[in-house]
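cron nightly-structures :: item 1 of 1
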Amino acid sequence: MKSFPNFHKRFAFALMAFALTVSFLSNAQSTEKLTGTLLHSQTEAPVAYANVVMYQLPDSLFIAGANTNMDGVFELSYLVGKSFFLRFSYMGFESFTLSSEELQGNALGTLYFQESESLLEAVLIEGEKVKGITEGEKAVFMINKQHVGASNTGMDILNLIPGVFVDFNQNIRISGKNKVLIFVNGAERDHRFVQQLRAEQIDQVEVILNPSARFAAEADAVIHILLVERESGFSGMVYGEMPISRNEVYSFPSASMSFYTPKFHAYTSYNGAFSIFDVVQAYERNTTEGTQIQMEQKTRQRSISNTIHQGLEYALSSNTLLHGYIAGSWFSETHNGSIELQSNQGDTWTAKREEEDRNRSLTTALYFQHRFHGEKESSITVDWTQSRLRGENQLRFLQEEERFINYIRPSQQVSNLRTDYSTQLNPNWRLITGFQLQRQHFANGHENDFDFRSQVHALYGSFNWKGEDWDAEFGMRVEEIQLRTLSQEGRKNHFFFLPNARLGHVWNEKHSTRFFFRSAMVYPLFHQLNNFEAFLDPFTLSFGNQDLQPYTFHQANVEHTWNTGNLLLMNAVFFEKRSQMINELYALNSEGLMEVTFANLGDLFQTGIQSSGAMRLSKQFSINHMLRVFHSRGIGNDREQFPVRDRVAIETGFSGVLALEKDIFLTLRFRYLSPVNDIQSDFFSGPLYFLAAEKKLGDQWKLGITSALPFSRRFTYYGLETRGKDFQQRSTGQIHMSRIPLWFTLSYSFQKGKSVQKEKKEVSSGLHINKKGF
């Protein structure tokens, strides 16, 4: 096997050769670029995401289109020699046109929008923006006053984005995807950071369902949150959630304080997570030998987390930004109660369940961005993160005559360095390249036979091309993974080549089509690798597998977007294949005990259709939806033990906001996933829905009330049906609640200081994504 440094050189040479070829071919085209800036005629504020469309004369055929960026700037590439006219439009403003004969050169300078008389009232009352647009690989959703009025924190905002759903444990799922990367102003963060953001801070949310080569290979999707421009002075928020009943506690309080100057931003914040419920877990197991076992475990779940964030952002110059961040977290989750088993082969077994859990983690991060002067608009970003976790967990099953104890002390250390470089090769082509280094160390301080280490070296590059009404991206990510465990001699090295491609076409102002293809990776997790044998009950043992291997998955989809301003509808057909996927494995051993572990069991295929979007039905009411209907097929490596399994599944969800008079906002969120299969089992969960009402009390206070699953009394958060050669088992986990669980919300926010013009920065607060096109 050739060394990684030699491969690094060859790949870099290939990128350079391709870039030179592209530059030569592109320069042979006779194209020029129009640029300009759109401002509000009265306030002279930039008008972001206005539509600029070029039509051919005399037949008015569509030639090209673009949107203005956050500074109101737009640019359009076109072929020289054609007669055309430009149409400028944006909701709430009068549209206007310019013909090619009226233009003096390609730099149009500053153009002004006049407010529309008929739409002015609605715009002022609702503060409405265009709901969203598709742009390159992403969908962009602008946050308006209705979103902010119905939300308190960043997580509340995400719940109002089409396809995004936040579950009971604040885990984020997007259109069937679970491994979601979160970026805030270009820097990678986690869901706890989003939880402490004020809703007013968020300007727009970008969603990428098909991440390109520059993102971590294991990412299913990416959320990028862009914050509003800050003012000098200081601001803050205190937010609390107070349950009415002690039967269920579901609270995510937060507090933050920020201080701003034109170059300097310092902040500190706190967010907590408290979930206390009555939980019932049960299973029924039947074997081919006639054994029947029923288990019921009744516990009180206490999940408590406290996190403190501190950060410092400094603009070294107009084109250089440095951001330091540190977060410390203390968390635990315990299930204390009783367990009872009944078997038709023996007596009833009962025990008291006691659990102790203590964990602490520390995350440090440094983000650097620099934009070089010149026409190429080159920039470089460096994002470094290090996380450490230490824990101690003890689970005891107590009886009068004996006791069973599981004791582990997990430790985890992960460091990640990512560097991106972006440059404009010519008006049509842009190169984005970089590398990523990641190290992981998993260990169990109590058991010396578990020690897992991995190193990932990744090199990636992509070419972005933008034509008149076509755009494309072609990329490649190459990863070398080194794995080492105590059960294996030496290191195992793996090379993976992960291509990705995107092709988009804008048909007219309202319709566009995009095609995506990507290959990606999934790595084993700590609990899947840890081979510590845990006692779950007298008939069940659980342990990990140190011999797990990373696996690849490939996905492709074709998406059509229909955007009318009040409606953004994205419909897609998709295909996905996971090869040698890591799967939970249930098997009876020679003693009749159930062993639960993990293995690379086989391949999983999913094919289906998907629809998501945002629709504004009236000035007061808007709704977002997501629907996936797909066929899932699991093919195991051992056809005798794991026969081919087929199932049609449905995942759906929606959220709606109704704005009433006197600053009252009503919100409904719903999500449901029908049973879906993997290689051995079927998984299912119950429908989950939330109802909320918020009332603004002046400019700083907000009072609300929320209910989850009213009248349901119980929620199935986990369900599994699994079969083996000699058994079948059905397991469920349910939360028991009051008839109408309610909790109050109260928030107070403030901002002091003058609204001043910040020093204009040339650095971008966003990811390096092609800004042209609809």
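cron nightly-structures :: done
The radius of gyration is 28 Å.
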